[in-house]
């Protein structure tokens, strides 16, 4: 599987893949918004907290399903049949073992978190879906190596349609947590069938010691960083669920989900494409630097006004949606998570850069520092500030992304300030304007509508007339190139 594509071909595939991911995200975001509204209107914060806790348990198990072999297949310039066979075999051995352990731990988890019967059913459904989804790994890797994310996107759109519509339907039928259980199983089965119809592969069993050694040389440091991310993010959620209770965790989960929605939609999609792209052009530092600058500029232009706009109007949105006022206690948490979302978004591209260029130990070092700091600060600040302790910790950790960027500048020379200051200043101008509107317009519906119209107009106007950047023209130029 040699990579003979030119930089122009890689760039073209990258743009198609990124645009496809954004289309999928927009579609999924709409369905997710509707589903999230329905679920959070019908279900209580406590039930939502149980769902978040259960997902975190599965995330913990998911870490042990792959020792970095899949990432190694994407990062390698060339892969062999032995590489693929070895990766699949090792992964399935791990996953089957983990699922067995997961079922054995059922009583312990039920007792420890005092989960209701529906919570255990959801836990079992996620374990089964976990196995089914693992069978999609190799077909997905084939598409990622070819930078054909538009095909992966097609599968995800079908999966998300099944998942969200099922959640909405069964939530209306008052199935509670079982709505999620049914939805995850349907999504897993349908996704497996569809991806094999697009990227067919006959599973083969076998382990090549030579292939395994080479794959692990990159995979283990990469997976070590993933383990620390797991320890930092998902295990801390399990800790909070036990210490603060499901209702408080429900508020934290709601605030975090909404505040991070822009970076989940925008940065997660860009990052998925960046890893294989950086890996393909890793020998040309000049092109890598140019790509880094463009990514930073575009993400700042998109994320900054969206995050600030959401922060300004969320307190009104909560009260205009029927039965949504119960989430009002989470608004201050939402503001904190908005701050952390802005800063943390700048670490993602560079973590992908380090991994793609073969510097997997650098993300591991950063992740070690973040993990230790998170586990020191979260219990301490939770004891001092209660429910606000974890969000404050996340804000502190996110600001440290500046050190990630400084380290990246030692490897690739790029202009950071020149890439971000224009959209940030335009966002500040927009924020002042929207604040004035919200101050004088008392009707919440009218205030939200005027904030959106005038806020976006002022932002685009300032970018074009003050900084001479036409975002629409920039997008057209990017696509043409």
Automatic annotation (TrEMBL):
Entry membrane topology: Multi-pass membrane protein
Compartments reported by the entry: Cell membrane
Signal peptide (UniProt feature, chain positions): none
Keyword entries, A-Z: Cell membrane, Membrane, Transmembrane, Transmembrane helix
Pfam families, sorted: Polysacc_synt_3 (PF13440)
Entry GO terms, CC: plasma membrane
Transmembrane segment boundaries: 21-43, 49-74, 86-109, 121-143, 237-254, 302-321, 327-346, 358-378, 384-408, 420-439, 445-462
InterPro entries: Poly_Biosynth_Transport
Family membership: Belongs to the polysaccharide synthase family.
Matches recorded under PANTHER family: LIPOPOLYSACCHARIDE BIOSYNTHESIS PROTEIN WZXC, PST FAMILY PREDICTED COLANIC ACID TRANSPORTER
Protein name: Uncharacterized protein
């Amino acid at each position: 599987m040699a990579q003979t594509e030119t930089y122009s071909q890689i760039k073209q595939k990258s743009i198609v893949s990124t645009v496809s991911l954004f289309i999928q995200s927009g579609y999924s975001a709409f369905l997710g918004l509707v589903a999230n509204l329905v679920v959070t209107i019908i279900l209580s914060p406590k039930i939502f907290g149980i769902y978040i806790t259960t997902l975190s348990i599965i995330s913990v198990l998911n870490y042990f399903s792959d020792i970095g072999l899949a990432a190694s297949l994407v990062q390698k310039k060339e892969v062999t049949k032995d590489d693929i066979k070895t990766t699949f075999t090792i992964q399935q051995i791990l996953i089957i073992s983990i699922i067995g352990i997961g079922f054995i731990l059922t009583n312990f988890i039920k007792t420890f978190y005092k989960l209701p019967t529906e919570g255990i059913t959801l836990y079992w459904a996620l374990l089964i879906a976990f196995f089914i989804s693992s069978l999609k790994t190799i077909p997905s890797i084939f598409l990622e190596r070819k930078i054909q994310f538009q095909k992966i996107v097609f599968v995800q759109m079908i999966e998300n349609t099944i998942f969200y519509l099922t959640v909405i339907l069964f939530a209306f039928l008052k199935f509670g947590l079982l709505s999620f259980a049914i939805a995850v199983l349907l999504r897993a089965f349908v996704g497996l069938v569809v991806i094999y119809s697009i990227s067919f592969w006959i599973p083969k069993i076998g382990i090549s010691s030579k292939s395994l050694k080479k794959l692990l040389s990159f995979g283990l440091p990469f997976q070590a960083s993933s383990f620390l991310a797991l320890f930092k993010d998902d295990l801390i959620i399990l800790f909070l669920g036990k210490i603060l209770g499901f209702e408080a965790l429900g508020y934290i989960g709601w605030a975090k989900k909404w505040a991070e929605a822009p970076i989940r939609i925008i940065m997660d999609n860009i990052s998925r494409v960046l890893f294989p792209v950086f890996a393909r052009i890793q020998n040309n530092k000049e092109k890598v630097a140019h790509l880094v600058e463009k990514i930073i500029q575009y993400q700042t232009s998109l994320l900054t006004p969206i995050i600030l706009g959401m922060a300004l109007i969320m307190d009104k949105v909560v009260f205009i949606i029927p039965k949504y006022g119960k989430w009002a206690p989470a608004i201050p948490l939402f503001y904190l998570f908005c701050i952390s979302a802005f800063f943390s978004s700048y670490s993602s591209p560079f973590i992908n850069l380090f991994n793609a260029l073969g510097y997997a130990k650098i993300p591991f070092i950063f992740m070690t520092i973040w993990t230790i700091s998170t586990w020191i600060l979260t219990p301490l600040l939770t004891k001092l500030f209660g429910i606000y302790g974890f969000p404050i910790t996340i804000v502190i950790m996110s600001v440290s992304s500046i050190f990630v960027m400084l380290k990246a500048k030692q490897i690739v020379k790029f202009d950071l300030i020149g890439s971000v200051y224009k959209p940030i200043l335009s966002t500040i101008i927009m924020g002042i304007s929207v604040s004035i509107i919200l101050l004088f317009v008392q009707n919440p519906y009218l205030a939200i509508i005027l904030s959106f119209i005038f806020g976006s107009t002022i932002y685009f106007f300032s970018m074009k007339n003050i900084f001479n950047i036409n975002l629409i023209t920039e997008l057209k130029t990017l696509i043409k190139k």
